[in-house]
Amino acid sequence: MTDPIFNLYYDEIYSSGLDPSARFPVSRYQKLHHRLKQVDHSNSIQWASPDLAKVDDILLVHDEQYVERFLDGQLTEKERRRIGLRPWRDSIVERTLRLTGGALAALHDIFQGQFIAGNMAGGTHHAFRDQGAGYCIFNDLAICAEKALQEKDVNRVLILDLDVHQGDGTAEIFKQDDRVFTVSLHGLNNFPFRKKVSNWDVGFENETGDEEYLESLAKVLGHLRSMNFDLLFYQAGVDGLATDALGLLALSRRGLAKRNQLVMDWCEEMNMPMVVFMGGGYAKPIEDTVDAFTDLFMEAAKRVKKNVTATGSFPKISLDEVKYKGTEPTW
Ligand SMILES: [Zn+2]
């Protein structure tokens, strides 16, 4: 019997579909793909190019007119500016459908019995039902959550958003929906400047470092342990890195690697399957982002090789010990 393999979805269009002169660091997907093919144990990743997302799946979440206008190249200049992937190119349409397709394909792997699968892009948490923002056009987390809830065995989905920017689109989409619990740990002073209300928000001051961040995360995970989720979507942005150009926190590569381990240990302990959504990362130099994402996906690949059993390594942190700035969770 061969070892199980981590399915990671990627297509060249993730980079090539954007204009090379865009402020967005378009090369990061290519660079990360290249790196992940060269690291030790690179054969534990099974690469697959996703199909385009079906419009019906996108319509599970998004407004029909918005979807149609995007597909027809009819978004206004103002709408495109808000999304920010400029200069705009027609290939953004195919890129967006393929990238959303990557998330749906990873979710499908979970339905087929995989414990963990991922898409090497996405985590497009700033997209609302009827508009995009902050490099996000369709909200792949929300689309996958709706898709998962159609499965008979999925009743509650946890979206754990550890990108440095608040998951405002996701929070707003599910604000009245008890089936999806949205958690966002983010920089208080980062975009979006008007935050939405997630089920649980934890905001950090500028320059927050590893220790405080990881303590807060451990506390959040400790609380969530009793909530009986069927599935986790992990938005694993690495823009909390100290060298990130768009983040204001001061996390280290080591701290982010530890973060991923905490989340994945916790998932194993809960025996809860996970889809990894890549999220943001805009470090200068971009190699720092590539390093941190390499750690993320190799950690995920490692988890596939293990049997799904509790590791017992999750730290038991008393709530009183934790300096904590978040609001209490609401359901
Ligand atoms: Zn971000």
The rounded distance between the terminal residues' Cα atoms is 43 Å
Give the overall shape. Answer: globular
The ligands bound in this entry are: zinc ion
Give the tally of β-strands: 8
Proportion of helical residues: 25-40%
- Any idea of the CATH topology? Arginase, Chain A
Helical run tally: 11
Number of domains: 1
Description:
There is one protein chain. Helices cover 37% and strands 12% of the residues. By secondary structure, the chain is α/β, with parallel strands linked by helices. The protein has one domain (6-321): Arginase, Chain A, CATH 3.40.800.20. The protein has an 8-stranded parallel β-sheet, sandwiched between helices. β7 (231-235), α10 (253-270) and β8 form a beta-alpha-beta unit. α6 (91-111) runs parallel beside α7 (140-149), α9 runs parallel beside α10 and α10 packs parallel to α11. The radius of gyration is 18 Å and the shape is globular. Mean pLDDT is 91; it is low at 306-331. Residues 163-165, 237, 239, 280 line the site of zinc ion (ZN).
